[in-house]
From TrEMBL:
Main location: cytoplasm
The keyword Cytoplasm belongs to this UniProt entry's keyword annotation: yes
Function: May be involved in recombination.
Keyword Cytoplasm: yes
Stated name of the protein: Recombination-associated protein RdgC
Top-level division of the source organism's lineage: Bacteria
Keywords of the record: Cytoplasm, DNA recombination
Family as reported in the entry's similarity comment: Belongs to the RdgC family.
InterPro entries: RdgC
Compartments where found: Cytoplasm, Nucleoid
Species this chain originates from: Denitrificimonas halotolerans
Length: 305
């Protein structure tokens, strides 16, 4: 149970999520299959994956929840081809033109006819909650997917006062400074990937991978005014990741040191291994996230969220 992506949200200071309350709320919206004429559904599943398990998995005060989207995948090209064939059939048989209003109606009929045979895709999104620090970690690389989960939680709870984590100054200022002076701090150090953005309107983006970020090439781009919008970083030989200017963490990897520790802590039991890795992940986040935010200039505070 190591997350591979990370979007971080801050609960309001006066908000508390209790495991029993959250369990009762999530149970009101279990994930259900798509009906034959339903394009998508969203609900919660037990975090450990077994039907008899609780929706909220709690270990040492940390909570893990999971939301599942089920959707019928109907490619647009299939609908367009079927509509084109139907229009040709009508125009040929009845010697008349099929106009937009009728085409729209035909399209709806085709979609309804094809939906029961459409491929079904299920996507599970996990979120970990650390109530003591007021942080929610969502294992997602897209804001849309994270917001789907949080919106579903908000729906069953009645409210969920959270906001995306933010820092006092633009991350691009920090990124660019780190590249310029080859120095980061806070236990962080540069790896071998970055994106450099031209600040001019409609300016381009240069992607650099598997290169020395202290190279003359990178410095030349910075010298003409480009700014860094993405960096690959490592932290204390424990984590490696890619961080963008929206503070989205992608390709998060827990290094061998932590993986070995989780295996030792978890013993031979699969459930024990799961819990050990989950707790170790959350304890690592408790140490890592404050250092990351401080190195980026400090977390932006808000009176309310």
């Amino acid at each position: 149970m190591f997350f591979t992506n990370l979007l971080i949200y801050r609960l309001s200071a006066d908000s508390t999520l209790l495991p029993d309350d959250l369990e009762a709320a999530l149970a009101q919206k279990p994930a259900i299959p798509c009906g034959s004429q339903v394009t998508s559904t969203y609900g919660f599943v037990p975090a450990l994956g077994k039907p008899q398990d609780p929706f909220v998995h709690v270990v040492q005060g940390f909570m893990l929840i999971a939301g599942r989207e089920e959707e019928r995948i109907l490619p647009g090209s299939v609908v367009r081809d079927a509509l084109r064939e139907k229009v040709v059939e009508i125009e040929t048989a009845e010697s008349r033109k099929v106009y937009k209003k009728e085409k729209d109606q035909l399209k709806d009929e085709i979609v309804q006819a094809l939906l029961p045979r459409a491929f079904i895709r299920r996507t599970v999104t996990f979120a970990a909650i650390d109530s003591s620090t007021g942080l929610i970690f969502v294992n997602a690389s897209s804001t849309k997917r994270a917001e789907e989960l949080l919106s579903a939680v908000r729906e069953v709870l009645g409210s969920l006062p959270v906001r995306p984590i933010n820092v006092k100054q633009s991350p691009e200022i920090s990124f660019t400074s780190w590249l310029k002076y080859h120095e980061v701090g806070g236990g962080l150090f540069l790896l071998d990937e970055c994106e450099l953005r031209d600040t001019a309107e409609d300016g381009g983006i240069i992607k650099i991978k598997r290169e020395d970020l202290s190279s003359e090439e990178v410095q030349n781009h910075l010298a003409v005014g480009k700014v860094a919008s993405l960096l690959s970083l490592a932290w204390e030989d424990k984590l490696s990741f890619v961080l963008d200017n929206k503070l989205t963490i992608k390709r998060l990897r827990f290094e061998e040191l932590l993986q070995t520790q989780a295996e030792q802590d978890g013993g031979d039991d699969a459930a024990g291994q799961f819990d050990a890795s989950f707790v170790l992940m959350m304890l690592t986040f408790r140490e890592f996230i404050p250092q990351l935010l401080e190195t980026l200039g400090g977390e932006e505070q808000a009176n309310s969220v």
